[in-house]
Amino acid sequence: MHVVVVGKLVPDLVEDLEVDASGRGLDRQFLKLVLNEFDEHALEEAVLLKEAHGARVTVLAPEAEGVDDALYTALAKGADRAMKLVGLGEAPSSRQIAAALASALPSLGFDLVLTGVQAADDLDGQVGMLLAGYLGLPHVGVVTGVELDPDGSRARVRKEYPGGWLAELEVQLPAVLGIQAAKQPPRYVPVSRVRQAMKEHTLEELSAEPVPVPRLSVRRLSKPEAAGRAEFLDGSPQEVAAQLVSILVERGLVR
Amino acid sequence: MLTPVERVAFVLLAAACVGWAAVGFLQVFRAIARGRGSLSTDRVLARAASALVAVLSHRTLLKTRRPWAVAHALILFTFTYYFLVNVVDALEGFSGFSTVGQGGVWGPFNLVADVLSVLALVGMTAFLVRRFVFRPRSFQFNPGVLLLPEVVRGIRRDSAVVGAFILLHVGSRWTGQAIRIARHGADPWQPLASLLGELLRPLPEGVLAVGEHVTWWLALGLILLFLPYFPRSKHIHLVFAPVNLTLGLPDPPGRLDTNSRDGTGAARLEDLPKRRILDAYACIMCNRCQDACPAHGVGKSLSPAALEINKRYYLNRHLASFSRGAESPALWEYAISTEALWACTTCAACVHICPVGNAPMLDIVEMRRELVGRGEVEDPNLQDALVKLAKYGNSFGRPERQRGQWTRSLPFPVKDARKEPVDVLWFVGDFASFDPRGQERSQALARLLHHAGVDFGILYEGERNSGNDVRRVGEEGLFEVLAEHNIRALDRARFRVVLTTDPHSLNALRNEYGSFGRSYPVVHYTELLLQLVREGKLQVRRPVGRKVTYHDPCYLARYNRVTEPPRQLLAAVGAELVEMPRNRENTFCCGAGGGRIWMTEQPGKERPSENRIREAAALGVDTFVVACPKDYAMYTDAVKSCGYEGRMVVRDIVELVEQAVGLQAEVAVG
User: Fold this and answer.
1) d(CA A195, nearest CA chain B) in Å
2) pTM of the complete model beyond 0.80
3) Residue A178, domain member (yes or no)
4) Peptide bond into B436 cis (omega under 30)
5) Among the residues of chain A, which ranges form H helices?
6) What mean pLDDT do residues A209-213 have?
7) A residues 174-233 lying closer than 8 A (beta carbon) to B
8) Domain B396-531 class in CATH
9) Would you call B28 exposed, middle or buried from its count of C-beta atoms within 10 A (0-12, 13-18, 19+)?
């Protein structure tokens, strides 16, 4: 059983994000990139599968500032191989990533591909679906838990629907799954193990040829503008009532 | 006096018992030797001398339970004197010579023995009555505390055996003297035994003659029989407690051992340092540590005493195989639960109170290192904090660039110590930088320093969490990353002295960074403020004039022995200090240390901070003064949860100083 986890780095939302001079992207000067939260869950689910079924886990991510740390951390958590997808340039689109993976993955050989269900910087959740489409494989998205059949031919996946419904689906392998949440929160990996992983492993590189794909362009990036405003009235019920009356009178709503 | 048969019997018994005991002691030494590292022997003579002073003075016992320390002294001094008495008695038995009624040196010899014997009998009886009649709470464990099944009955039986042995041994020797007095005439040097002798005199001579033999055997034969029991009994503390006191505690107390195996900690008994295995043999199971423990005090499943006791009972059961090298199970399977491991605040109260120099807290840190090394961090909040500390260098998960943001609302700029030399480099710390309540107190301190004309600066985003509590959580690797980062920043800065707000940072910078070959002069803000007041740079214009109590932070008072400057500062600003019963190095933890501040607190139970606030409330003061930003957060919460709002107010000492200097209006209670 070979599980491939596809991740990517996204801007850390904890930082003060600024729009750059062009007004169409984030100012990347002080941008800190971290592994996408859903990809953390995909990795956790893969490591859980490894622990339960002895699967091999390979982690793949497009190169970016900080990708080495993210990949070494993945190795420290239990991944067996870590690869950087190179040649796609800065901030490749989901379509570019999916196309590159579609040409690179078959040579690696895999039974299951796990991706985060979506990423903070595009929210379109397309990588898994497009990849499944390119490769002609089944795809399930918004998955919250994966179990494997003992013979490795099928996976049973859990998926939560709105309204409190839970479905269990059976999917023929190989397949591509978009992970919403792992069966348990992503584990903590001690720094000593990350350092050990840096000593024991080398990161591999997987070259991707940029494939011409349709692109979108951002016209404008900005913070949401406040639509309306609310005014809060303080004081005792009597005072609030008096204020309310005077406001209503002032605005001509009552006489 | 002895018959030839008795003489042969005694020699044979002595040989058998000494031989049997030797096997046991050898196994104990081998068991201890399985621990890692070596026992430090530098300055061993000086340390032995100080241990001797500690034993003779009972300094370590007198920290608490004073009447019982006195009872212990009576037994200890008698027992020590009895080494001499027993030798003389044995010679008497073999030679037929008797010291009874002899003058010269034997007079005072017997007088001391006579008085001490009775005192030891009184002391021992008091101990037995306490344990078996009054059954104090101190000898009971909280319901959730992990205990080996044989512990409760084992301690009871061992205590009964040891008590009975001492009563019989001392009582028989004393009664024997009384019989000799009854048979051979008065001895003014043994007034107490003479009283009993008078009572025995009417007995038939035959009975007295037999009695002399029986009491001799009960006194000396019993000692021999007791020797092989020693390695199984807590009474072996009389050997290992002085050894432990000689080996001493880590110095400085705030620097943890870095000599762990490959950076990981301890899972099993044999992974612990030798000293920590030795602790189990020095432990007399008095449970003083448990009484002092803030976690046990609020009903949690942590008992430092139970940890040592379980180690000991495990060794008792498996001593032969363990001493030969058999692998033991993980400590958290029998000695301390993982829940209890994570409940420790590393306040070091157990270490401070232990009369025999044990350090159960250090075992706990070793086990935490092991669990963290395996990635087994159960508490999701702790995990979250560690992830944030790794990513951003602070537990708040805030961007590095926001660390200095609290300075923006000040009416003057705060120097960037990375860019220009400063006299005082202020290492602000996470809580004082990011916690909104901490920020206000940091601003107050900055105003005071500015007012006093101190040339100070901070490292802004060059600063990271000091790593003090990260280390105590057991995340050695992350501690190193944080420490190395701070050291690089400090190396590049030019300053005379480091100032810290947080006593935890103070401990890391003053003690822990020594492992990286750095030693900085580090002062706490209470020390600096006191100096500024004394130099007249801060002038008290409006004395505080109210009764306050002061809470000593563990990492300031217990770890770094800074207890007087905050008190002198309070006096200088005109506050009248009313001490809580647990003060100075005997302070009670707020519950935040050792990474507890990042962990989930079980709802429904009293928190250590609430226990502390109730202690203060009983004094009738309305102001609870703290000198640590974590304390400020912990105790303002505790005042609310205890329902003391409006009656009790928490004040950082910096606020009182600011008020006294006249920079800030008086703050009302509530």
Assistant:
1) 8
2) yes
3) yes
4) no
5) 37-53, 67-77, 94-108, 126-135, 191-200, 237-250
6) 82
7) 185, 187-195
8) alpha beta
9) buried
